[in-house]
Amino acid sequence: MKRFFIQRLEGLLLLGLGLMIFKLYVSGYLTKLIAPKMVPYALAALFAFLVISLLRMKKQKQGEQHCDCGSNGESSSSALVLKYSLFFLPILLGFILTDFTLSGEVLAKRGMAKQQAQMVSSYDSGKHANGEKISVNDDNYFEVLDDLLNNLDTIEGKEIEISGFIYREDTFTKKQMAISRLSMSCCVVDATLYGYMVNGNVEGMKTNDWYTITGTLKKGSYKGEPVPVIDLKDSKKIKAPEEAYLYENVQIIQ
To answer: Measured between alpha carbons, how far is 6 from 77 in angstroms, rounded to an integer?
Structure first.
């Protein structure tokens, strides 16, 4: 019976994995763990897990009349349950948990990504930095940031509007914060924090809350590197977007 017991455990394990992926997909949480470009692969895995699990369960049922004389009895079965429980626990958490965003403590340990201007860009340099007002959105986030990094000497006094969540580090003063976004290339493990340093009356703005801010740009520094800094003029608290990650053009700034 040991062989068939293993087959049943493996079938249940694969079935659980498939159902977990399905639950994350229909609930919209899947893209909080993997980038949209990886979703087709996850759905293919979902289909494969379900098919293989059914085959394993069917094979076990058909073979029940045979005897596995090499079985070690209950002690062996208990050991197998313990071993396979290491796989069932993450599946259980996948069904129970609903918040898959990175915590403030994790972000603080990672810090903001090192921002360096790129010498070659796929767009017109100065396109955003030379405008009267710079409006940053999900589609142009990295393009704008790279453009500003390439034109730090000409951005003084330019007005900017941007949305993101509030991020702070222990080294920041009471008048400092960062308006930040998380980017993802493949999965949450490679999530990277990007942001703009902000100076002004920011003490009442709670860390991790989402805001739309407007301000004026100037050249500043972060950890010894020249970066665009925003002098805060106005802020408005907003709800966190359903899609909190940025996915495209992450390669522009690294």
So the answer is: 9
